Amino acid sequence: YHRLSIMLTIYSSVRMRENGKTREKTLTMGTLNPQVKAVEYAVRGPIVTKAGDIERGLQQGQKHPFTEVIKANIGDSHAMGQKPITFLRQVVALCSFPELLDSSSFPEDAKQRARRILQGCGGQSLGSYSASQGVDCIRQDVAVYIEQRDKGVPADWDNIYLTTGASDGIVSILKMLVSGQGRSRSGVMIPIPQYPLYSAAISEMEAVQINYYLDEDNCWALDINELHRAYQAAKEHCHPRVICIINPGNPTGQVQSKKCIEEVLHFAYEENLFVMSDEVYQDNVYSPDCQFHSFKKVLYEMGPEYFNTVELASFHSTSKGYSGECGFRGGYMEVLNLDLEVKAQLVKLLSIRLCPPVSGQAAMDVIVNPPLPHEPSYLQFHKEKSAVLGALAEKAQMTEQILNTVPGIKCNPVQGAMYAFPRIFIPPRAVEAAMSLGMSPDMMYCLRLLEETGICLVPGSGFGQREGTYHFRMTILPTTEKLKVLLEKLRDFHIKFLKEYAPLEEPKRSEDDTQEALKQFR
């Protein structure tokens, strides 16, 4: 089919030339929107494309020094083998096929939720458009959830907007904030390392990216002095208008302390910055010394002067947490202290995409309105949720411990989220070799790792890092057994890589240390 398509294209071109006509394509790399060309998204970048090619080759019988590709590049829980939460799928199934409401196979609490959602849908069908802000009863459930999460801090459902994953909300708010030309162009403060959605959106909108660096030597903490440095430097060439925070962190896995959040909010108040708080990993906190604090709750506790004035957008999603329902593309944002006229403009902007997927809205409803202790589904739901989060906590600890046994790799504690972002030593000769190939050293490292072991990771350069340092991001989502295999292969590859480009002493000690660390998780 592909050959036939090429032949028809060539034949058509020849006939047009014979007739004295030539027609060039309207859309070429020369006419393509330059902002599209400038966008980069490392999580689905060239390494992942290469991994897909290798995977297809393996299926067709091509020989490689491994039998499978282990994809640890993206936070896609179900693709890594996590089972769906039964109650969530029951409610969505009932909403999708209401005839099941008459079945005795479904618990009554799931049926009650499905009926309520369907009553809020046009024609009582999940297939109808909802309001652009989302189904009203689901927005109301989100507000109740936020109030309960934040121990009574009031939440108004009119400030809740259901979104197509958290990404949709983040991009929508950034669109509202970007304006001006030259030195008055909007500047967006983002953490480095960062989730590439932010840099991609900033690039597409031609906003100014303002990097503030997280403190790797202090478990990727956010340093208020670094915020002031970045802000003052940026004022020379743009108008800083917004600060973005990811808590718990992606790709860095840190959980911000309450004191740190207070400092950020005070900074935003003093400098008149809009605050965007990406909190999609709020259920993913593993370290016993850490606790998730929502920016909204901390803002409330700072008093009315702050709570009634600082503009804050907070984001959540079905894709992470314990549910891992990436494909439903469900999410919400809560936006506080928005000017009333601007609020109408936000609704107008959201109306362009009509509405988020209503099935995703239903999935979001289950996450914010799970079974209660007196309901029939509670015990199974609690068991499944605890099993997922317990396994992630164990894998977070295992990943950190094993990586730290490998010479030339240093991994901070994975306090939360779903990723490790270890620093890797790349010898000068390897750096030179990478430069001669026209690629970043950690890109070469990850490409070699993929080609020699079948492990697909994302180079740290795709997330941003201090100059002269190198990292990779890996998820902790593979099953425990597969994660052990991944970490052992990674250790062997790294030692071989160092031997190739620099002398290494006592590699045997690393193997012994790794095996000792693995024993703790058997």
TrEMBL record:
<comment type="subunit">
    <text>Homodimer.</text>
</comment>
<feature type="domain" description="Aminotransferase class I/classII large">
    <location>
        <begin position="106"/>
        <end position="490"/>
    </location>
</feature>
<dbReference type="InterPro" id="IPR015422">
    <property type="entry name" value="PyrdxlP-dep_Trfase_small"/>
</dbReference>
<dbReference type="GO" id="GO:0004021">
    <property type="term" value="F:L-alanine:2-oxoglutarate aminotransferase activity"/>
</dbReference>
<dbReference type="InterPro" id="IPR015421">
    <property type="entry name" value="PyrdxlP-dep_Trfase_major"/>
</dbReference>
<dbReference type="InterPro" id="IPR015424">
    <property type="entry name" value="PyrdxlP-dep_Trfase"/>
</dbReference>
<dbReference type="GO" id="GO:0042853">
    <property type="term" value="P:L-alanine catabolic process"/>
</dbReference>
<dbReference type="Pfam" id="PF00155">
    <property type="entry name" value="Aminotran_1_2"/>
</dbReference>
<dbReference type="InterPro" id="IPR004839">
    <property type="entry name" value="Aminotransferase_I/II_large"/>
</dbReference>
<dbReference type="GO" id="GO:0030170">
    <property type="term" value="F:pyridoxal phosphate binding"/>
</dbReference>
<keyword id="KW-0808">Transferase</keyword>
<comment type="function">
    <text>Catalyzes the reversible transamination between alanine and 2-oxoglutarate to form pyruvate and glutamate.</text>
</comment>
<keyword id="KW-0032">Aminotransferase</keyword>
<dbReference type="GO" id="GO:0005737">
    <property type="term" value="C:cytoplasm"/>
</dbReference>
<protein>
    <recommendedName>
        <fullName>alanine transaminase</fullName>
        <ecNumber>2.6.1.2</ecNumber>
    </recommendedName>
</protein>
<keyword id="KW-0663">Pyridoxal phosphate</keyword>
<comment type="similarity">
    <text>Belongs to the class-I pyridoxal-phosphate-dependent aminotransferase family. Alanine aminotransferase subfamily.</text>
</comment>
<comment type="pathway">
    <text>Amino-acid degradation; L-alanine degradation via transaminase pathway; pyruvate from L-alanine: step 1/1.</text>
</comment>
<dbReference type="InterPro" id="IPR045088">
    <property type="entry name" value="ALAT1/2-like"/>
</dbReference>
